[in-house]
Amino acid sequence: MRGAHEEVPALFRTKPDFPWLILGHIVMAFFFTMLCIRFVPAGGVFATATLGILVGLVYAGPHLISFAVEPLTTKILGGWIVGAVIQFAIAGGIVGAIYKPSSPASSRH
Amino acid sequence: MKRFIIAFIAAYVFIFVWGWLLNGVVFKDIYAQTPNLWRSQSEMMSLFHWIIIGQALIVFAFVMIYASGFAGGGVIAGIQLGILLEIAAIGMRMGFYAVQPFPGKLIVYGSVGGLIEMIIVGAIVGAIYKPASARTQ
Fold first, then answer.
1. A81: which of A59, A99, B51, B59 is 20 to 30 A away, CA to CA?
2. Residue B134's pLDDT band (cuts 50, 70, 90)
3. Backbone CA torsion sign across B98, A61, A5, B25
4. How many CA atoms lie less than 13 Å away from B58 in the CB half-sphere?
Protein backbone atom coordinates (compact mmCIF):
# COMPACT_ATOMS: atom_id res chain seq x y z
CA MET A 1 0.00 0.00 0.00
CA ARG A 2 3.01 2.29 0.38
CA GLY A 3 2.97 3.35 -3.27
CA ALA A 4 -0.78 4.01 -3.16
CA HIS A 5 -0.40 6.14 -0.02
CA GLU A 6 2.39 8.15 -1.65
CA GLU A 7 -0.05 9.21 -4.40
CA VAL A 8 -1.82 11.44 -1.84
CA PRO A 9 0.99 12.63 0.46
CA ALA A 10 -1.10 15.44 1.98
CA LEU A 11 -3.32 12.81 3.67
CA PHE A 12 -0.50 11.04 5.48
CA ARG A 13 2.17 11.91 7.99
CA THR A 14 5.71 11.91 6.63
CA LYS A 15 6.67 9.45 9.37
CA PRO A 16 4.20 7.23 11.28
CA ASP A 17 3.76 7.86 14.98
CA PHE A 18 4.83 4.34 15.98
CA PRO A 19 3.77 4.34 19.68
CA TRP A 20 0.17 5.12 18.63
CA LEU A 21 0.36 2.58 15.82
CA ILE A 22 1.55 -0.18 18.16
CA LEU A 23 -0.89 0.73 20.97
CA GLY A 24 -3.78 0.83 18.48
CA HIS A 25 -2.96 -2.65 17.21
CA ILE A 26 -2.66 -4.01 20.76
CA VAL A 27 -6.10 -2.59 21.65
CA MET A 28 -7.57 -4.01 18.43
CA ALA A 29 -6.04 -7.45 18.96
CA PHE A 30 -7.07 -7.64 22.64
CA PHE A 31 -10.71 -6.70 22.11
CA PHE A 32 -11.00 -8.77 18.93
CA THR A 33 -9.77 -11.77 20.92
CA MET A 34 -12.34 -11.03 23.64
CA LEU A 35 -15.01 -10.88 20.95
CA CYS A 36 -13.90 -14.26 19.56
CA ILE A 37 -14.02 -15.85 23.01
CA ARG A 38 -17.46 -14.38 23.70
CA PHE A 39 -18.74 -15.32 20.22
CA VAL A 40 -17.26 -18.82 20.03
CA PRO A 41 -16.54 -19.98 23.60
CA ALA A 42 -15.68 -23.46 22.36
CA GLY A 43 -13.01 -22.12 19.99
CA GLY A 44 -12.49 -23.48 16.49
CA VAL A 45 -10.61 -22.03 13.54
CA PHE A 46 -13.52 -21.92 11.08
CA ALA A 47 -16.00 -20.20 13.41
CA THR A 48 -13.56 -17.53 14.57
CA ALA A 49 -12.27 -16.94 11.02
CA THR A 50 -15.92 -16.42 9.95
CA LEU A 51 -16.33 -13.93 12.79
CA GLY A 52 -13.13 -12.26 11.59
CA ILE A 53 -14.61 -11.81 8.10
CA LEU A 54 -17.76 -10.23 9.58
CA VAL A 55 -15.69 -7.93 11.82
CA GLY A 56 -13.60 -6.99 8.77
CA LEU A 57 -16.84 -6.02 7.01
CA VAL A 58 -17.94 -3.91 10.01
CA TYR A 59 -14.65 -1.99 9.67
CA ALA A 60 -14.89 -1.84 5.87
CA GLY A 61 -17.96 0.40 6.31
CA PRO A 62 -15.95 3.30 7.81
CA HIS A 63 -13.43 2.96 4.96
CA LEU A 64 -16.25 3.52 2.44
CA ILE A 65 -17.38 6.55 4.43
CA SER A 66 -13.77 7.83 4.54
CA PHE A 67 -13.62 7.53 0.74
CA ALA A 68 -16.67 9.80 0.46
CA VAL A 69 -15.20 12.52 2.69
CA GLU A 70 -11.41 12.26 2.22
CA PRO A 71 -9.68 12.58 -1.16
CA LEU A 72 -8.56 8.94 -1.11
CA THR A 73 -7.97 7.00 -4.32
CA THR A 74 -10.02 3.91 -5.22
CA LYS A 75 -6.76 1.93 -5.01
CA ILE A 76 -6.37 2.90 -1.34
CA LEU A 77 -10.04 2.19 -0.64
CA GLY A 78 -9.85 -1.27 -2.24
CA GLY A 79 -6.61 -2.07 -0.46
CA TRP A 80 -7.95 -1.03 2.95
CA ILE A 81 -11.17 -3.05 2.55
CA VAL A 82 -9.55 -6.23 1.25
CA GLY A 83 -6.77 -5.79 3.82
CA ALA A 84 -9.24 -5.43 6.73
CA VAL A 85 -11.22 -8.53 5.76
CA ILE A 86 -8.09 -10.68 5.24
CA GLN A 87 -6.44 -9.29 8.41
CA PHE A 88 -9.38 -10.12 10.67
CA ALA A 89 -10.09 -13.49 8.98
CA ILE A 90 -6.50 -14.59 9.64
CA ALA A 91 -6.50 -13.08 13.15
CA GLY A 92 -9.74 -14.97 13.85
CA GLY A 93 -8.22 -18.19 12.55
CA ILE A 94 -5.16 -17.70 14.79
CA VAL A 95 -7.31 -17.03 17.89
CA GLY A 96 -9.50 -20.07 17.08
CA ALA A 97 -6.45 -22.30 16.66
CA ILE A 98 -4.74 -21.20 19.87
CA TYR A 99 -7.55 -20.48 22.32
CA LYS A 100 -8.88 -23.53 24.15
CA PRO A 101 -11.50 -23.10 26.88
CA SER A 102 -10.41 -24.39 30.30
CA SER A 103 -13.64 -26.34 30.74
CA PRO A 104 -16.04 -27.56 28.04
CA ALA A 105 -18.51 -24.80 27.18
CA SER A 106 -22.03 -26.07 27.49
CA SER A 107 -23.72 -23.04 25.99
CA ARG A 108 -22.83 -20.09 23.79
CA HIS A 109 -24.90 -17.66 25.85
CA MET B 1 -35.71 -13.04 8.64
CA LYS B 2 -38.39 -10.42 9.26
CA ARG B 3 -36.84 -9.51 12.64
CA PHE B 4 -33.41 -9.34 11.02
CA ILE B 5 -34.68 -6.84 8.45
CA ILE B 6 -36.54 -4.75 11.06
CA ALA B 7 -33.45 -4.69 13.32
CA PHE B 8 -31.30 -3.69 10.33
CA ILE B 9 -33.63 -0.84 9.31
CA ALA B 10 -34.04 0.50 12.86
CA ALA B 11 -30.28 0.43 13.53
CA TYR B 12 -29.56 1.95 10.12
CA VAL B 13 -31.96 4.87 10.67
CA PHE B 14 -30.30 5.56 14.02
CA ILE B 15 -26.74 5.36 12.65
CA PHE B 16 -27.64 7.67 9.75
CA VAL B 17 -29.16 10.34 12.02
CA TRP B 18 -26.36 9.99 14.62
CA GLY B 19 -23.69 10.19 11.92
CA TRP B 20 -25.24 13.38 10.54
CA LEU B 21 -25.57 14.89 14.04
CA LEU B 22 -21.96 14.13 14.98
CA ASN B 23 -20.16 14.79 11.72
CA GLY B 24 -22.48 17.34 10.16
CA VAL B 25 -23.21 19.44 13.26
CA VAL B 26 -21.12 18.72 16.39
CA PHE B 27 -17.69 18.18 14.74
CA LYS B 28 -18.21 20.71 11.96
CA ASP B 29 -15.77 23.24 13.46
CA ILE B 30 -13.08 20.59 14.03
CA TYR B 31 -13.32 19.47 10.40
CA ALA B 32 -13.09 23.11 9.31
CA GLN B 33 -9.66 23.38 11.01
CA THR B 34 -8.15 20.82 8.59
CA PRO B 35 -9.75 21.55 5.19
CA ASN B 36 -6.81 19.99 3.30
CA LEU B 37 -7.75 16.55 4.66
CA TRP B 38 -11.32 16.57 3.32
CA ARG B 39 -13.11 16.69 0.01
CA SER B 40 -15.06 19.80 -0.94
CA GLN B 41 -18.75 19.90 0.03
CA SER B 42 -19.86 19.38 -3.59
CA GLU B 43 -17.52 16.41 -4.01
CA MET B 44 -18.81 14.85 -0.79
CA MET B 45 -22.38 15.23 -1.99
CA SER B 46 -21.54 13.54 -5.30
CA LEU B 47 -20.09 10.59 -3.34
CA PHE B 48 -22.84 10.53 -0.71
CA HIS B 49 -23.99 7.08 -1.85
CA TRP B 50 -20.71 5.66 -0.47
CA ILE B 51 -21.67 6.97 2.97
CA ILE B 52 -25.05 5.24 2.70
CA ILE B 53 -23.44 1.97 1.52
CA GLY B 54 -20.75 2.20 4.23
CA GLN B 55 -23.29 2.72 7.02
CA ALA B 56 -25.46 -0.09 5.63
CA LEU B 57 -22.44 -2.42 5.61
CA ILE B 58 -21.60 -1.60 9.24
CA VAL B 59 -25.18 -2.29 10.36
CA PHE B 60 -25.59 -5.41 8.20
CA ALA B 61 -22.38 -7.00 9.49
CA PHE B 62 -23.29 -5.99 13.07
CA VAL B 63 -26.71 -7.65 12.87
CA MET B 64 -25.14 -10.73 11.22
CA ILE B 65 -22.64 -11.08 14.11
CA TYR B 66 -25.39 -10.57 16.68
CA ALA B 67 -27.70 -13.08 14.96
CA SER B 68 -24.98 -15.73 14.67
CA GLY B 69 -23.37 -15.52 18.09
CA PHE B 70 -25.20 -13.24 20.51
CA ALA B 71 -28.91 -13.68 19.73
CA GLY B 72 -30.95 -14.73 22.72
CA GLY B 73 -28.95 -12.50 25.05
CA GLY B 74 -31.24 -9.56 24.34
CA VAL B 75 -30.33 -5.93 24.90
CA ILE B 76 -27.39 -6.65 27.23
CA ALA B 77 -25.72 -8.98 24.71
CA GLY B 78 -26.28 -6.40 21.97
CA ILE B 79 -24.65 -3.70 24.08
CA GLN B 80 -21.71 -6.01 24.91
CA LEU B 81 -21.18 -6.67 21.22
CA GLY B 82 -21.35 -2.95 20.47
CA ILE B 83 -18.78 -2.13 23.17
CA LEU B 84 -16.33 -4.86 22.08
CA LEU B 85 -16.56 -3.86 18.42
CA GLU B 86 -16.20 -0.17 19.17
CA ILE B 87 -13.23 -0.49 21.53
CA ALA B 88 -11.47 -2.54 18.84
CA ALA B 89 -12.44 0.26 16.42
CA ILE B 90 -10.86 2.81 18.77
CA GLY B 91 -7.64 0.81 18.35
CA MET B 92 -8.06 1.16 14.61
CA ARG B 93 -8.60 4.93 15.01
CA MET B 94 -5.33 5.14 16.97
CA GLY B 95 -3.65 3.41 14.03
CA PHE B 96 -5.07 5.97 11.61
CA TYR B 97 -4.04 8.80 13.94
CA ALA B 98 -0.50 7.40 13.78
CA VAL B 99 -0.34 7.68 9.99
CA GLN B 100 -2.78 10.50 9.12
CA PRO B 101 -2.49 14.07 10.48
CA PHE B 102 -5.95 14.18 12.08
CA PRO B 103 -6.43 16.55 15.06
CA GLY B 104 -6.19 14.58 18.32
CA LYS B 105 -9.52 15.91 19.57
CA LEU B 106 -11.26 14.52 16.47
CA ILE B 107 -10.00 11.05 17.41
CA VAL B 108 -11.06 11.48 21.07
CA TYR B 109 -14.51 12.95 20.33
CA GLY B 110 -15.03 10.52 17.45
CA SER B 111 -14.24 7.59 19.73
CA VAL B 112 -16.64 8.80 22.44
CA GLY B 113 -19.33 9.39 19.80
CA GLY B 114 -18.62 5.99 18.24
CA LEU B 115 -18.89 4.22 21.59
CA ILE B 116 -22.27 5.83 22.33
CA GLU B 117 -23.38 4.99 18.78
CA MET B 118 -22.46 1.30 19.02
CA ILE B 119 -24.00 0.92 22.49
CA ILE B 120 -27.29 2.25 21.15
CA VAL B 121 -27.03 0.18 17.95
CA GLY B 122 -26.44 -2.91 20.11
CA ALA B 123 -29.43 -2.08 22.30
CA ILE B 124 -31.67 -1.56 19.26
CA VAL B 125 -30.58 -4.81 17.59
CA GLY B 126 -30.76 -6.76 20.87
CA ALA B 127 -34.25 -5.45 21.59
CA ILE B 128 -35.63 -6.22 18.12
CA TYR B 129 -33.86 -9.35 16.88
CA LYS B 130 -35.00 -12.59 18.47
CA PRO B 131 -33.91 -16.05 17.29
CA ALA B 132 -36.73 -18.29 16.08
CA SER B 133 -36.35 -20.61 19.13
CA ALA B 134 -36.82 -17.69 21.57
CA ARG B 135 -39.96 -16.48 19.80
CA THR B 136 -41.70 -19.88 19.96
CA GLN B 137 -41.19 -20.22 23.73
1. A99
2. low
3. negative
4. 27
Backbone angles phi and psi of B133, in degrees to 5:
-65, -35
Please report the residues numbered 70 through 89 in chain B whose beta carbons come closer than 8 angstroms to any beta carbon of chain A.
Answer: 70, 72-73, 77, 80-81, 84-85, 87-89
- Residues 76..95 of A with a Cβ closer than 8 Å to B: which? none
Q: Is the pLDDT of residue B27 over 70?
A: yes
B98 and A10 within 8 Å at the Cβ level: the answer is no
Q: What is the pLDDT of residues B29-62, one digit of tens each?
A: 888 888 889 999 999 999 999 999 999 999 999 9
Chain B's closest residue to A88, CA to CA, is: B88
Compute the distance between CA of residue B52 and CA of residue B57 in angstroms, rounded to an integer: 9
| Whole-number Å distance between alpha carbons of B81 and A93 | 19
- Which residue of B54, B59, B98 is in closest CB contact with A24? B98
Three-state SS for chain B is CHHHHHHHHHHHHHHHHHHHHHHHHHCHHHHHCCHHHCCCHHHHHHCHHHHHHHHHHHHHHHHHHHHHHHCCCHHHHHHHHHHHHHHHHHHHHHHHHHHCCCCHHHHHHHHHHHHHHHHHHHHHHHHHCCCHHHHHC
Asked if B69 and A39 come within 8 Å (Cβ–Cβ), the reply is: yes
What pTM was estimated for this model as a whole?
0.90
